[in-house]
Structures are given as structure tokens and as C-alpha cells.
Amino acid sequence: MIDLHYAATPNGLKLRLYLEETGLAHRIVPVKLSAGEQFAPQFLAISPNNKIPAILDHAPADGGAPLPVFESGAILLYLARKTGLLWPQGERAQLQATQWLFWQMAGLGPMAGQAGHFRAHAPEAVPYAIDRYTREAARLYGVLDRRLHGREFVAGDELSIADIACYPWVVPHAGLGHDLSATPDLQRWFDRIRARPATQRAYAGVEDPYAKPANFTQAERQTLFGQGAQG
């Protein structure tokens, strides 16, 4: 059994999607970010960076005590290597999946997240930041579009954790100022993943976080965005 500490953000949805695709036994533990539940001591014991998602694996491969894992990319890699599910066969294929997983973690996620923040969550418009991050998100969508040309999935012929990592950051493309018709191979892949039953289950009732300007209270904004070195 896996406890998934979760909120319906793109990073949280990576793990929700992985667990739906694989059918691994799990329990959803909601974390209400705007209420500050990510700062609770019991959550920080699992995720010291006070971010979701995080898991607690009650049946680790070594047979030891329940194992906490934080950071969405690390969790995907851990579960894929442990179970072999959505993990390609062969060293070269595994390297492809790992490279694109790291690409998403280092590039697509952070840049799209900043674009979304300045477009929908910032208390005031910052034109330079909006332009900078919107353009970079579009560039990265272009990189993914070219990667998918002639391929069914990001790492090759089979669905893998690379697709699971990238898809939730393509879902909010419209709120990030990107029209998928400009990237037709990305559009094709996106439509295929969206139609999968596991994706339908994972995204049931989930709203695009960047589709409209956020209406945070001052207290919620401080909780979500105002933390410094001292927490």
C-alpha cells in the first residue's frame, strides 16, 4: 500500500496518473495547500521541502520500515524501478525515459509553472515576466513536439514515466498562452493520453489552475507564496 500525499496540481497529478495507469494499491491523503497543511510536522517528516506530492511506501523492496519519498520525479523513478511498471526494457530505453523525466523536472515544469504564476496568480501584472516565461514554455512545447515527431510516446514505442511526467504540464497549455495546433505532434500525443481511461479517472473533477485569475485571500497568498528561509 502506498499513501499518496496529494493536491491536484500538475506535479500532484503526475503521481495520481501513474497510480491510475498501473493499478498499484494506494490511498489518497489530501493536502490542502491554501490552508498550510504542507507545513504540518507529520507532512514535513515525509516531504522536508513542504511540497506535494510525497509518498509513504508501506511495502518497500528491502522489507524495512515504511519508506518516505518526496519530489515527483524521484517518486516516479522509484516506483518504476521498484515495480517495472511504465519502465522501459533495456538500458538505452531506460536512459531515454530518464533523460526526458529530468528534462520535464528541470525545464518544462518550472518554466510552465512560472508562466502560470505570472499570468494567473501574481497580484499585479509584470509584463516582462509574463513574456519571458510564456515564451520559454512555448519553446519547451516546441522541443517536445519535435521529440514526438514519428514517435507514439516520449521515450519510444511504449507509455513510460516520461509521458506521465510531461502530460500534466501540457494540460494547462491554453492558460499558458499556447495553442496546441502550433505543435501538431504534441497535439496528437496529448489527445491520445487524454483519451486513456486512467487519465479520465485521474482528472475527474480537476480544473486547470491557470485558466482564470486566482482569487486568493491575503492569508492564502502568504501561505502559498510568502514563505522565506525561516518558513
Please name the defining characteristics of this protein.
231 residues; Glutaredoxin; Glutathione S-transferase Yfyf (Class Pi), Chain A, domain 2; 2 domains; 9 helices
Explain this structure to me?
With 231 residues, this protein is of the alpha+beta class. It folds into two domains: 2-83, Glutaredoxin (3-Layer(aba) Sandwich); 91-202, Up-down Bundle (Glutathione S-transferase Yfyf (Class Pi), Chain A, domain 2), CATH 1.20.1050. The chain has helices at 10-22, 41-44, 72-83, 91-121, 127-148, 161-170, 184-194, 197-202, 218-225; strands spanning 2-6, 26-30, 54-57, 67-70. The protein has a four-stranded mixed beta sheet with strand order 2-1-3-4, with helices on one face. Helix 1 (10-22) packs across helix 6 (161-170), helix 4 runs antiparallel to helix 5 and helix 5 packs across helix 7 (184-194). The two termini are 31 Å apart.
Content of β-strand: 5-15%
Output the structural class: alpha+beta
Give the neighbour order of strands across the main sheet. Answer: 2-1-3-4
Oligomeric state, counting identical vs distinct chains: single chain
- The general outline is globular
CATH third-level topology of the largest domain: Glutathione S-transferase Yfyf (Class Pi), Chain A, domain 2
CATH architecture of the largest domain: Up-down Bundle
| Total number of helices | 9
Helix-residue proportion: 40-55%
